[in-house]
Design a protein that fits this description.
Layout: E1 4-11, E2 16-21, H1 24-32, E3 47-55, H2 58-70, H3 73-80, H4 84-91
Antiparallel strand pairs: 1-2, 1-3
Length: 103
């Protein structure tokens, strides 16, 4: 049975890249050596794996990748740091003191 990984890379410009693969070592080497010259990470080297999750089925892995890609930087950093209790608070929508619209 294959293992699938959802991973987060920290790039040299301090941005994060989220991906999914069935071979984390191979995929990291591809990122680190600019195997795909037009890719996001190829212009942000060096990169470092800062987080990874394992899955036994590709479908939940793909869903998790899509979920993490939508997360804010702060949520990704809380996950990377293992501050799982902070994730719920960071998920709450902020009220920006919106003025009610009257018609």
């Amino acid at each position: 049975m294959r293992t699938y990984y959802v991973y987060i890379l920290l790039c040299a410009d301090q941005s994060y890249y989220v991906g999914v693969t069935n071979n984390l070592g191979r995929r990291f080497i591809e990122h680190a050596t600019s195997r795909n010259p037009g890719s996001y990470t190829s212009h942000r080297l060096p990169v470092m794996v800062v987080y990874a999750e394992q899955f036994r089925n590709p479908f939940p892995a793909i869903l998790r990748e899509k979920q993490l890609k939508k997360w804010t930087r702060k949520k990704k950093e809380a996950l990377i740091a293992g501050k799982l209790d902070d994730l719920k608070a960071l998920s709450k929508k902020k009220n920006f003191n919106r003025v009610p619209v009257t018609r």
